[in-house]
Specification:
single chain; alpha/beta; Rossmann fold; 2 domains; 6-stranded mixed β-sheet; 17 helices; globular
Length: 396
């Protein structure tokens, strides 16, 4: 806000956008408006140019996606006066997937993603995992945790309201209400149509397939949806930040666009609720634990990437021979690190084969490869390779 006229806090509902925006407004003296208020929304949608023109000083506009008509008016106001920090906006839909909203403010707006709490935020520490990973100093971490701690993190998730509820039953009630609100209100507002009855079942199917390759044909067959409908529904779930795609990585930049992405649910607490599993069930079902643990790690790295400099791109890697690395992290200078996730306390030499293949393919560009696992020992496993306990993710 110190150097940009328009700043947008963009993220799922109930991640804390309004709380943060109101705190900033109170500190800076900005006026606060929310489009969740029907009277304010009617004024903004009825006369967007007049609404913006009559605003003086810095302002906060909450839930901006409800009135896309405001974006051209904001653009006009900013072009007349490019004073930094004029508008702080929040949105619960991915603006970049909504053409009417994204085209107006190119070059005038910075988008700040706001995710559910990270494991480090919940522990009260600033994570040092990514800087250490690229610096090759991952072996200097000290951490400890138990399987019960890990499964509790998976089932709890990171939404502030869910985290505050100590009872599994009360947390489940919150997740149920959350899903209903988003699917019945937010998604319908975006789609402008009724008849989205298949969305809850589709979301459950995606939860069961989290961390798997995205195969719309298989999902469509299981969901009983035609391809065009499924593609549209999946895009809507992405737009409200319930699911996200993890693109494929390749040295050939063009190949990244044609290889299949992976799909992850945005929050493992939400995924566990959809699947009806608790910590005990996760401890006993290792294949399910493996899928959710991979999604958890992917989600934690997405959060850390959002505040890490220099910028890091997140991908997965899969060869034609079937070798697969769960997460590949690439900096703009071409340096690459990689993370594998294993839901077990025992790891063999063969488990490192994909990391070794990627290391040998990249040569000097490869910075480090880490196998995150449920054991408690940090062990070097060859040149630039380490076996690392899961809690390293949120170690300072």
């Amino acid at each position: 806000m110190a150097d940009t006229p328009v700043v947008l806090l963009n993220g799922a509902r109930q991640t804390g956008k309004t709380t943060l925006a109101q705190a900033i407004a109170a500190r800076s003296g900005a006026r606060y408006y929310t489009l969740d208020d029907y009277a304010t929304l009617a004024l903004a949608a009825g006369d967007p140019a007049g609404f913006i023109r009559n605003l003086s000083g810095p302002v906060v506009i909450d839930e901006i996606q409800k009135a896309p008509e405001l974006f051209p008016a904001i653009k006009l106001a900013v072009d007349k006066d490019r004073q930094p920090g004029r508008f702080l906006l929040t949105g619960s839909a991915n603006i970049m997937t909504l053409p009417r909203l994204s085209e107006s403010l190119a070059g005038r707006m910075e988008i700040i993603p706001l995710f559910p709490f990270s494991a480090g935020e919940l522990a009260g520490v600033a994570e040092g995992f990514l800087p250490r990973l690229f610096a090759g100093s991952i072996d200097r971490l000290e951490m400890s945790s138990s399987l019960e701690d890990i499964t509790a993190k998976l089932t709890c998730g990171g939404y502030p309201e869910a985290v505050e509820r100590e009872s599994d039953d009360r947390r489940g009630a919150w997740f149920a209400s959350y899903i209903t609100t988003i699917l019945q209100r937010d998604v319908r507002d975006l789609a402008r149509v009724d008849g989205l009855h298949a969305l809850p079942n589709l979301l459950k199917l995606l939860a069961a397939r989290t961390s798997g390759l995205l195969n719309l044909s298989d999902i469509g067959r299981d969901a009983g949806l035609p391809h065009t409908t499924l593609t549209r529904y999946f895009a809507l779930l992405e737009t409200v930040f319930l699911v996200h795609r993890l693109p494929a990585w390749s040295r050939n930049l063009g190949q990244r666009l044609v290889k299949a992405p992976k799909t992850h649910l945005a929050d493992t607490g939400l995924a566990c609720h959809l699947l009806g599993v608790d910590s005990r069930r996760l401890s006993e079902d290792r294949p399910l634990l493996g899928r959710l643990l991979e999604s958890f790690v992917a989600g934690e790295l997405r959060k850390q990437v959002s505040w890490t400099n220099p910028r890091i791109a997140l991908h997965h890697f899969r060869t034609a021979a079937g070798l697969e690395v769960d997460l590949v992290l690439e900096r703009p200078d071409g340096s690459v690190s990689a993370v594998e996730v294993k839901a077990g306390a025992g790891v063999g030499v063969s488990d490192f084969t994909p990391l070794k293949a990627l290391r040998d393919q990249l040569g000097p560009q490869f910075q480090a490869g880490v196998m995150l696992y449920l054991g408690d020992q940090l062990v070097p496993f060859g040149d630039k390779l380490w076996l690392v306990p899961i809690p390293a993710l949120w170690a300072p």
